[in-house]
Design brief:
- It contains 14 helices and 13 strands.
- The protein is of the alpha/beta class and 442 residues long.
- It has an eleven-stranded mixed beta sheet with strand order 1-3-2-6-8-7-12-13-11-9-10, sandwiched between helices. Strands 4-5 form a two-stranded antiparallel ribbon.
- The radius of gyration is 20 Å and the shape is globular.
- Glutamine binds next to loops.
């Protein structure tokens, strides 16, 4: 499909899948070299940016996020900002203040989250690359549910300038695409030092040596609690890896069990401070009664326009940071984070990557999600959060399809700054794996 025809069908494709919050109305690709989309928590000059929250409605940023600016400089045309869970709070993109993206393999099912719209766009449009953001798994989860490749690079590899923060010590911008080669190509475009984000400044060069993966470690804790379909697909993927000459070894990583509770303490602690800036005065929504006392005014705007999950996380995160409780929760969670990092470092001394399924089940149906409690939602992330709290690069690649026809992904986690071995793995895997694209159309 040419870029022009993609642009001409954007409206009708979006009305079927709901991947975009904002999109271009321009049908002329001009001299663009490629089309891309970006998660709606990355600021963009020419499109409304809401991060999935109604409190930001009407916010047109004055500047591009560095990652978006670099994609444009490389010849990319931004075609849309993708729907997501409000501020990244979720696993299915159903916590969006706007439209909920629908899975390209089955419209009754979720795309995963929180970069659900990005995974959907990557799966639906041909030759399309989408920028996503991961705090606790928001690139790999939707990549797995939508059957595409997705990578979250090492924390600090890509500048967070212009990213609407969820958890500043956790957020990473990465890439989703149906083509394995796009991971290397576009991480190279967006990575690197940026004076405007101090956490991106000092970093080892991104290597592109094509370093082969020789051995993977499969943690016992990573193969517990899987659905039958995921277990079967993962086991046959392991056989395939062995055939490709890769050593597969089972290991123990006991800290992985504690990563999920630690993550939700760290993430909500940071989120609750980040959300304090939305008071209906500086960005987005500005309606309210200006004769009110300031705290009544702020509370009114926040009650009206934050969704339930955002409110829950403000409460949780405020509690875990409170005097008298922070030692018991926040400080403990930080200690667990160090133990998880040490666990990865130990295993990655002898192996090129840690490998497990990305998600324990395939994309759930919307009616099943509505029956899940908040805790059920959080628990679904137990396989993706460990690499995220460790800040290690991780990638989901499609590895099979369930009896329901839905895609299944597996997640490789490499050592800090070692994206090269992941890129090469994706490129090698693509040659072996029989990808079944969804039937798409407007
Ligand atoms: N599902 C996780 C959460 O709700 C991760 C989301 C993310 O990475 N933004 O926090």
């Amino acid at each position: 499909m040419s870029m022009k025809s993609t642009l001409e069908t954007l409206e009708s494709v979006n009305s079927k899948y709901g991947m975009f919050h904002a999109k271009t109305s321009d049908t002329d690709p001009g001299d663009a070299k490629f089309l891309f989309s970006a998660k709606d928590n990355l600021t963009s000059k020419d499109m409304e940016t809401c991060a999935g929250s109604r409190i930001l409605e009407g916010y047109f940023p004055a500047f591009d996020a560095t990652a978006i600016a670099r994609m444009r400089e490389a010849g990319g045309k931004l075609i849309g900002k993708t729907n997501m869970d409000e501020f990244g709070f979720g696993t299915f993109s159903t916590n969006s203040g706007f439209e909920i993206p629908r899975n390209p393999y089955d419209l009754e099912r979720a795309c995963g989250g929180s970069s659900g719209g990005s995974a959907c766009a990557a799966a639906v449009f041909e030759d399309h690359v989408s920028l996503g953001v991961s705090t606790g798994g928001s690139i790999c989860c939707p990549a797995s549910f939508c059957g595409v490749y997705g990578i979250a690079p090492t924390y600090g590899r890509v500048s967070r300038y212009g990213l609407i923060d969820y958890g500043n010590s956790l957020d990473k911008i990465g890439v989703l695409s149906t083509k394995a080669g796009d991971l290397r190509k576009y991480i190279n475009v967006i990575a690197g030092r940026d004076e405007r984000d101090p956490t991106s400044c000092v970093q080892p060069e991104l290597r592109n040596e094509g370093r082969k993966m020789r051995s993977v470690a499969v943690p016992k804790e990573g193969v517990e609690g899987l659905s039958k379909d995921v277990e079967a697909a993962f086991n046959s993927a392991l056989d395939e890896l062995r055939r490709m000459g890769i050593d597969v070894e089972m290991v123990d990583m006991p800290s992985l069990k504690y990563a999920m509770p630690a993550y939700y303490v760290l993430a909500t602690s940071e989120a609750s401070t980040n959300l304090a800036r939305y008071v209906g005065m500086r960005y987005g929504r500005q309606d309210g009664d200006y004769t009110q006392k300031f705290d009544e005014f702020f509370s009114g705007v926040r009650s009206r326009y934050f969704g339930d999950e955002a409110k829950r996380r403000i409460l949780l995160g405020t509690f875990t940071r409170m005097a008298g409780y922070s030692d018991r929760y926040y400080s403990k969670a930080r200690e667990i984070r160090q133990v998880v990092i040490q666990d990865y470092k130990g295993v990655l001394k002898d192996h090129d990557a840690v490998l497990a399924p990305t998600m324990p089940f395939t994309a759930p149906r919307f009616d099943d999600i509505s029956k899940m409690s908040a805790l059920d939602n959080y628990k679904a992330d137990y396989l993706t959060v460990p690499a995220n709290i460790a800040g290690t690069p991780h990638m989901s690649v499609p590895c099979g399809y369930g009896s329901d026809g839905m895609p299944i992904g597996m997640q490789f986690v490499a050592d800090h700054w070692d994206e090269d071995v992941l890129f090469t793995m994706a490129e090698d895997w693509e040659k072996e794996f029989d990808m079944k694209k969804p039937e798409v159309g407007a």
